[in-house]
Design goal:
- By secondary structure, the protein is an alpha+beta fold.
- The protein has helices at residues 7-23, 26-33, 41-50, 68-81, 87-101, 104-116, 230-265, 277-302, 310-336, 346-359, 364-374, and strands at 121-124, 140-144, 147-158, 165-171, 182-188, 194-200, 206-218, 222-223, 267-268, 271-272.
- It is 51% helix and 16% strand.
- A hairpin with a 2-residue loop joins strand 9 (267-268) and strand 10 (271-272).
- The protein is globular.
- The two termini are 25 Å apart.
- The model has no long low-confidence stretch (mean pLDDT 95).
Length: 375
Amino acid sequence: MDFSFSEEQTLLRNSVQRYLADNYKFEDWRKFTRSEQGRDPKHWAQFAELGLLAAPLPEAHGGLGGDALSTLIVMEEFGRALVVEPYVPTVVVGGGLIDRAGSDAMKEEWIPKIASGETLMAFAFAEPQGRYNLADLTTTAKKQGAGYVLSGQKSVVIGAPWADTLIVTARSAGGRRDEKGISVFLVDKTAKGVSCRDFATVDGSRASEITFENVEVPASRLIGEADSGLALVERAVDEAIAAVCAEATGGMKMLVDATVEYSKNRKQFGVPIGKFQVLQHRMVDMFVNYEQAVSITLMVTLKLASDAERAKAASAAKAQIGKSGRFVGQSAVQVHGGMGMTDELNVGHYFKRLTMIDTLYGNVDHHLRRFAAAA
């Protein structure tokens, strides 16, 4: 099988690489992630200008008609540059859900907004008691007239401080952990009854704890059919997993390269530390873990369209990425020594991001159990 990227995909990668190399330097990243807003909005506008936001979206509604491989390419390059923009919740989750299950009117309204960078979304699906069970919901959606009323709480909603629209999962029927009875809504973050407590995350991003108190949502903001949203959410999360796995491979590549380069220049006992066999072995193990991560990320990306294989592939990839990311990150910090822990060096920041990715959408233990259940 030929795993080569097409000419169009190579051009997409080159375009992302050039922009980030020129405009998303680590020194700038440190400044704007520490600013009050936590990001520089000009980058999102430029991503839209370059077609990155439209890349995986359907042509019929203003996208470029790409596929999951387009997302893989973009996210891998984002991982190399520690990009904090909410690409996954807005384009991958939001765009994917609306394209797959939204009404024609919803597609016509929202997909062009996503492609043009006019809207930013956040995926509010996790709850304090839910751990990684997507069906464990206490947030409720009660039918009222022609719409719904939402009440409940969502935890660690990544990118919510920047978002104008929330994608919210809620229980519209059944018991707390029932698979049936889950619905998915688009909710205006400024709607009456929505309150947010924003905070910075360890990896330089931003997130919110969000409370919904009798928030009225029109029926037109329901994505898909009422009470049948779990399958939609599971697929959206699997696609998000593939995207953050690709991001993680970009970060791992940067750590492997930085560690090898450092070992050539840092001298101890009069020779570069890269001459020591034990460190050579460690860096080979780092490279092997990175290559395993690349291979399994490509595998899950190619299987996203298969309902029969998608869940198992996503869990296999997430478990491997978690293990590889931890090994590569810890090894990079160890070889760099005390410098690896400093804020001024990018190594520790890549490790923090890999650590955060390990917990996003389920950690290693969760996905090993999910993989075993699907076997």
